[in-house]
Design a protein that fits this description.
Helix content is 48%, strand content 11%. The strands form two sheets. A nine-stranded parallel β-sheet has the order 5-4-3-2-1-10-9-7-6. It has a three-stranded antiparallel β-sheet with strand order 8-12-11, with no helix packed on it. It folds into two domains: 223 residues, Alpha-Beta Barrel (TIM Barrel), CATH 3.20.20.70; 99 residues, no CATH class. Helix 2 links the parallel strand 1 and strand 2. It has 15 helices and twelve strands. The longest helix has 19 residues. 52% of the residues are buried. It is α/β, with parallel strands linked by helices and 355 residues long.
Length: 355
């Protein structure tokens, strides 16, 4: 009897369960990736906030924690992206994830190296484009998702993409438990991807005071803003976001300059490299130069919350699902509970739920 949880995602990526831990900047560090993989999920290391010199050691650190396969997330707009691509191929990671960025030639390089390409998309047209470029599967994030997000809910976007492409599809945006996994499988997805739910675990290296802001947040405390870089981003309301929402052009310019200097210090990238990354992001996303600069330096504002442990001074990207979560389980406990509940829901629907 076949196991309904042994999906194409598991078979392609080598994980026990069809659950992906997404690559949240400053959050998906080696400790979280290793813990999620050891629990049976497939974890992605967040390399979009790392310098090329940091990527190799971070991969080695994950491998010191787990023998399970894992992936790495990056974007082609960050300083040193070409070197990072070489490192990922040399280190033979199992998969890479990204938004828009890599072209057909780059995707072919990964595939020739046996590395699965799994972009995250928020629109049907982007899913189609990624498939045309040769990716192996796509993660579809509905509007409930955290960080940059679209306006179409998962319940509408997911079936649209499933009808539009022929590669395996992973569902993201609003998923946190076994009921969600069972529902995603019923739609035809090969699994689910979760960010906020993995952030809200004991194994996540984010400081406790920041996690407490997440556990206290209700759905009414979560909002969409376009003030960060001109694109919709989902955040928990806090003191910093309130100031940004009220800030005029001069205030935003001063914030950008201050953050740019901190970004230079954190990453070692030169101002020229940061401006170059901003221009690339602007060209790809249709942003103004000011918006592009803010997008390039926004990681600094997240770093204050996720590394420095100052949630009142940083930004708190989140999925809407945080509004109904108030606990911090370990990754093993979380994944085991999701699997158990998914099997129960599938069994209730008459689907054999073999172990």
């Amino acid at each position: 009897m076949s196991d309904p949880l042994n999906t194409l995602l598991c078979q392609r990526l080598g994980c026990r369960y069809p659950i992906i831990q997404t690559a949240m900047g400053w959050v998906a560090r080696p400790e979280l990736v290793g813990a999620s993989c050891n629990a049976g999920a497939f974890g992605f290391l967040a390399a979009a906030v790392l310098s090329p010199e940091e990527v190799g050691p971070a991969i080695d650190r994950v491998r010191s924690i787990t023998s399970a396969p894992f992936g790495v997330n990056f974007h082609m707009f960050q300083p040193g992206a070409e070197r990072i691509v070489d490192i990922l191929i040399e280190r033979k990671v199992t998969a890479v994830s990204f938004g828009r960025g890599p072209d057909k030639k780059m995707i072919a390089r990964f595939r020739d190296a046996g590395i699965a390409c799994i972009p995250t998309v928020g629109a049907v047209k982007h899913a189609k484009k990624m498939v045309e470029l040769g990716v192996d599967m796509v993660t579809v994030q509905g509007g409930e998702g955290g960080g940059h997000t679209g306006s179409v809910a998962s319940t509408v976007l997911l079936p649209q993409v499933l009808d539009a492409v022929k590669v395996p599809v992973v569902a993201a945006g609003g998923f946190a438990d076994g009921r969600g996994l069972a529902a995603a499988l019923a739609y035809g997805a090969q699994g689910i991807a979760m960010g906020t739910r993995f952030l809200m675990t004991r194994d996540c290296p984010v400081p406790q005071q920041t996690k407490e802001r997440y556990t206290r947040a209700g759905t009414d405390d979560i909002t969409l803003t376009t003030k960060i870089d001109g694109l919709p981003q989902r955040m928990i309301r806090n003191e910093t976001l309130a100031r940004i929402e009220k800030a005029g052009r001069l205030r935003m310019l001063l914030l950008a300059l201050s953050s740019a200097w901190q970004m230079k210090r954190l990453t070692g990238a030169s101002i020229t490299e940061l401006l170059g990354a901003a221009r690339k992001m602007g060209h790809a996303g249709g942003l103004t130069l000011g918006q592009s600069v803010m997008a390039a330096i926004a990681p600094v504002m997240f770093q204050r919350s996720m590394i420095a442990g100052e949630p009142q001074r940083g930004l708190l990207a989140t999925g809407l699902v945080a509004g109904r979560l108030n606990d911090l389980p370990g990754c093993d406990e979380l994944v085991a509970g999701i699997v158990r509940e998914a099997r129960s829901r599938l069994a209730a629907l008459g689907v054999p739920a073999s172990a």
